[in-house]
Amino acid sequence: MDILGTSLRVCVDDLDSAIAVYEKLTGAEAVRFQRGPVTVAAVGCFFLMSGPESEMSILRKITATIAVKDVDETIADLTAVGGQIVAGPLPAPVGRTLVARHPDGSIFEYVDRNPA
């Protein structure tokens, strides 16, 4: 699998306050988008997320978002090492996404830029 980059996931209660802090820390401007009932702001290498607790409790279990060249290739690589696909692949704002559990129990989101 070709890993192109990693984004750290940060669940916050007050998105506007968090955006101001992370913009200052990274020097990057936030790009906001909705993911169902969750509001997300991409700021540098951070994904700041805020929304209903029912959604946030699930999102807190995902360690990071990993950009890959191709989600299908990633599925093959993950299953070859004993990983388990938890969700997806599903359409995402820029391509496709999936959530996988590694054999050690870590959970990651993988995203590509290939439209479904």
TrEMBL record:
Residues 1-113 form the VOC domain. InterPro entries: Glyas_Bleomycin-R_OHBP_Dase, Glyas_Fos-R_dOase_dom, VOC_core. This is VOC family protein. It holds the Pfam family Glyoxalase. PROSITE patterns: VOC.
